[in-house]
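Database export, one record per block. Field names are fixed; values are copied verbatim from the stored entry.
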Amino acid sequence: MCESVRTLTAVFLDYANLYAEDLDRQPLEKAFRHISWHADTPQSLLVERLQDADVAIVSDISLNAAIFAALPALKLVLVASTGTDSIDLAAANHHGVTVCHCRDYATWSLAQHAFALLLTLTNNTIRYDRLIGEGAWQQANAFCLPCFPLNQLAGKTLGIVGYGASGQRMAIMAKAFGMQVKVAALQGRPAATDRIELESLLPQVDVLSLHCALSDETRNLLDARRLAMMKPEALLINVARGAIVDALALAEALRAGHLAGAGLDVLHCEPPPDDHPLLQHDIPNLLITPHISWSSRPARQEILNQLAENAQAFAAGQPRRTVTSST
């Protein structure tokens, strides 16, 4: 199939997930004859809004088999993220719909946020800020108030699980701080002489940082047994996917002092319920941010740029960043 991209019509069903108000939309505007923008779309309106569209653009909206069956004109789905869990890829393939996603748009942002979590835990920044808010420094008899340990990263060992673009950038930052970097070997990934089996790696690291995709092999990769293999003074950082870590096991490891701390940007359920195991107030040294590591302005702009590139490549008969069903 080869046609001018300017003949295609598109509907962006949930652009609010990109917080796109500060972004340049022109790359996408120029990519289509017409594009409709919707901040969000309930499931009940999906078929209506896509009825005459050639292209559906989604961030986090589910497109199931019934949706594809009801949209015979649909040719292309552009996913404004890397994950495609919400798309029924088998149904898309059955109905002749190409699915393309975005890749490596936030690798520096992810690594930067992972390192920010690490530095915050290492330097006890939040605890010191709260100390001053409580007036402790103002009432002290000395010029400094070293109530909490200030650790040094130089000479420590960072273990990285998932050595793609963001994992490699995390390694660059760690080495700049004088850390030694070791990389885990993962099941189903190409073998490499410099990789270490995960269970051999865990006892060696002072910090473990997760950068791998969620799959059947990585779901609950860090369960109670593997968390217990880590040093009691070790830190865990996760900017990948929440379900890679067993939430209950991590909560108990932190409560019991089997880990010194954890910094998370992701949870297995987002947004999380109030009773989420990791949102309880009795868990020490746990730092959580609301899945923001991907969301720097340059990263979000790169998503829009890649969506436009994917549309243009499809129209030229050479689809790129395609995703296929494993069934």
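Remark 1: The mean pLDDT is 94.
Remark 2: The two ends are 24 Å apart (CA to CA).
End of record.
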